[in-house]
Write a structure and sequence with these properties.
CATH architecture of the largest domain in chain B: Orthogonal Bundle
CATH topology of one domain in chain A: Rossmann fold
Order of helices and strands of chain A: EEEHEEEHEHHHEHEHEEHHEEH
Helix content of chain B: over 70%
Number of domains of chain B: 2
Helix content of chain A: 25-40%
Strand content of chain B: under 5%
Number of helices of chain B: 14
Largest interface: A-B, 33 and 22 residues
Order of helices and strands of chain B: HHHHHHHHHHHHHH
Largest sheet of chain A: 8 strands, mixed
Number of strands of chain A: 13
Bound molecules: adenosine-5'-diphosphate, magnesium ion
Distance between the termini of chain A: 42 Å
CATH class of one domain in chain A: Alpha Beta
Radius of gyration of chain B: 24 Å
Number of strands of chain B: 0
Oligomer: heterodimer
Structural class of chain A: alpha/beta
Shape of chain B: globular
Chain lengths: 327, 318
């Protein structure tokens, strides 16, 4: 599998009244052609900021730091002039934004909104674009007679489908989906996930799928990255992350999943909340909440390193050398 | 629709009731004040009979409504002419002034407001904001006086008094020119007065729309900045239509002041003259006409909503 996207050292800060906060802090990631990469983390861990950074749609007071690199097919999109981005968005990179049900313009029929995505990238004739738009909508399960509906006439799940149709309308190289199923009821969630898998099969879609819910990500992703306080704390194949979580945070996430089969367990939530980015703890960001923390954790800030083949983790439990360094 | 009929009926009834609730006898209002003391009982009877004021109240009310339906609003106590004729004479002037001011202030005020919201934080935008907030906070007569002094007094390029009789020289074109000349300053004043408010409404409503989720999607699918803003503008129109409709009464009020300042021969000026000469039938008729105008503006806005916003259309159909 060849590499489609390679991100190196991506950092995005928000300038707040209390000073700058790094909502995304030195993130590295790669997505292979035809691969789906999952990003999980609690709300506030910086997932949306990561997504918007990749789209280069971060708004003030946010800013992508210099030195961040984003190579799509070898070309660094962060180096392009701002004016070159509209031509890339929707064609090179497409977005399924968070709360996508509200991402449709309420006063324009949905087929015209999809058609607009097509005319924005070359198709000059609006008739032809509208026909293509309707095909795309049919492909995501919107019947021809609903194509001309306004967003408020459609259910949340259908609107979600329309946004997906809009995102894939121009056959983008990479689709980035931010919480594509949250806010939908369970049955609809399952259908949307199935749709995404189908599109992946039929189109060979490459994708980054972001969610606060590990099970959602586990269902369709090839690899998973776990995000905490703007950093990646664990990364690996979906199966290994699920079956053998290394980082105490990942372990807590896995244990928090309610088990349908097997003996009843009390649901274990992770105590505490995500850290205040203005006042990060000394050492490891997770240390104040960590059940496995020891003395060094308050001193050393662990980096993301390979713990086993194909598995990276940022935790002193697995970093012999870093521990010794402090001794 | 039923609401509008009801509002209209209330306006008509108030118009009927208010002069009858006013202190003093009708004679005080109907007879020129210097004659009130010397009037004989027979004359008194005759005046009352002439206006139908000796009849029972309910019958008066009925006759009043019937009169309005037939386009009869009584006679001016000062000029003896039918009130309807006097109003119709002035109406086109005010319509041109008010209509023109609303249209122009929309183009200027809302246009600048949208621009300002689209490029928030820029240098021009602060200047624009200060300028239009200043306009919005100035009383109409003050702006009118300022323009009057500037154009007529200082630059001497426009007539001071709009009430100059039209000469009609030079045929249709000449007449248009004369009207335009009289119209220009009042129109400019009223436009500037309204533009401030519309700027603020347009700016804040577009700024609100531009932070909505659908804007992110519009950007994400690769639209140019102009088309992204276009999406927002389409949604920001609704509050603007509301603002124009709600403020229709204020525009008319502003027109009264502006017409007076410039001696512009419209309804506002007529109201002013009638107040001075205590010509109550004319006043009553003029107020009624203004009330109908404001109600019509609101009705128009209500009819426009579903055209602009499909969600309103759906509610209406339900
Ligand atoms: N516009 C903003 N201004 C300041 N801080 C922000 C802004 N948007 C997000 N943040 C901060 O960035 C962090 C990450 O937020 P976000 O990317 O939305 O996380 P997630 O999508 O994982 O919930 C949070 O601490 C949040 O408070
Ligand atoms: Mg988010």
């Amino acid at each position: 599998m060849s590499t489609l996207l390679e991100v190196r050292g991506l950092s995005t800060v928000y300038h707040t009244s209390e000073g700058p906060v790094r909502a995304v802090d030195g993130v590295d990631l790669t997505v292979g052609r035809g691969e789906i990469l999952g990003v999980v983390g609690e709300s506030g861990s910086g997932k949306t900021t990561l997504v918007m950074s990749l789209m280069r749609l971060v708004k003030p007071p946010g800013r992508i730091l210099k030195g961040s690199e984003m190579l799509l097919d070898g070309e660094d999109l962060f180096r392009l002039p701002r004016s070159a981005m509209p031509a890339r968005r929707g064609r090179d990179l497409a977005l399924i934004p968070q709360s996508a049900m509200h991402a449709l313009n309420p006063v324009i029929p949905v087929d015209r909104q999809v058609a607009e995505a097509i005319t924005a990238h070359g198709e000059a004739r609006s008739k032809a674009a509208l026909r293509t738009a309707r095909d795309r909508l049919r492909e995501v399960g919107i019947s021809p007679e609903r194509c001309h509906a306004y967003p408020h006439e459609l259910s949340g799940g259908m609107r979600q489908r329309c946004v997906i149709a809009m995102a894939v309308a121009n056959e983008p190289k990479l689709v980035i989906a931010d919480e594509p199923v949250s806010g939908l009821d369970v049955v609809v969630q399952a259908r949307i996930l199935r749709l995404i898998s189908e599109l992946r099969e039929s189109r060979g879609l490459s994708m980054i799928l972001v969610s606060h819910d590990l099970t959602t990500v586990a269902k369709i992703c090839d690899r998973i990255m776990v995000m905490y306080a703007g950093r990646i704390v664990e990364a690996g194949e979906t199966r290994t992350v699920f079956e053998k979580p290394l980082h105490p945070y990942t372990r807590a996430l896995v244990e928090a999943i309610p088990q349908v089969r097997g003996p009843r367990q009390t649901l274990r939530a992770i105590p505490g909340g995500p850290p205040d980015l203005n006042h990060l703890p000394p050492g490891c960001n997770f240390q104040p909440r960590c059940p496995a923390a020891f003395a060094d954790c308050k001193v050393v800030d662990p980096s993301l390193e390979e713990a086993e083949p194909g598995k990276k983790v940022a935790c002193l439990l697995y970093h012999e050398d870093e521990r010794k360094l402090e001794a | 629709m039923a609401q509008y009929a009801l509002v209209l009926l209330v306006a008509l009834s108030l118009n009927f009731a208010i002069p009858r609730l006013a202190p003093g006898t009708p004679i005080d209002y109907l007879v020129p004040s210097e004659q009130v003391a010397t009037i004989t009982p027979e004359q008194r009877e005759r005046v009352l009979a002439q206006f139908g004021l000796e009849k029972p109240l309910l019958e008066q009310y009925w006759l009043y409504l019937a009169g309005i339906v037939q386009g009869d609003l009584g006679y001016s106590t000062q000029q003896g002419r039918p009130v309807v004729d006097m109003l119709l004479e002035r109406l086109p002037w005010t319509l041109v002034l008010v209509g023109g001011a609303i249209a122009l202030s929309l183009v200027i005020g809302a246009g600048a407001g949208f621009l300002s919201a689209a490029r928030r934080g820029g240098q021009t935008e602060v200047g624009g904001l200060v300028f239009f907030m200043f306009l919005d906070s100035m009383p109409p007569f003050w702006i009118g006086m300022l323009l009057l002094v500037l154009f007529s007094g200082y630059l001497q390029i426009l007539p001071v008094f709009g009430a100059l009789p039209l000469t009609g020289a030079g045929g249709g074109f000449g007449l248009t020119f004369e009207v335009a000349q009289r119209l220009l300053l009042p129109l400019l004043t009223l436009t500037l007065v309204r533009a401030g408010w519309l700027f603020l409404v347009a700016r804040s409503s577009l700024a609100g729309e531009l932070s909505e989720d659908y804007i992110v999607m519009a950007e994400a699918k690769g639209l140019s900045r102009r088309r992204v803003v276009g999406h927002g503008v389409r949604n920001a129109l609704l509050p603007l239509v509301t603002a124009v409709a709600v403020e229709a009464g204020t525009v008319v009020g502003g027109a009264t002041v502006v017409e007076t300042v410039f001696s512009y021969p419209g309804l506002g000026r007529l109201i002013y003259e009638s107040v001075l000469s205590r010509d109550y039938p004319v006043l009553q008729g003029a107020f009624l006409l203004l009330a109908v105008g404001v109600i019509a503006a609101n009705l128009l806005a209500d009819l426009l909503y579903p055209v602009i916003d499909p969600r309103v259309r759906a509610e209406g159909a339900r």
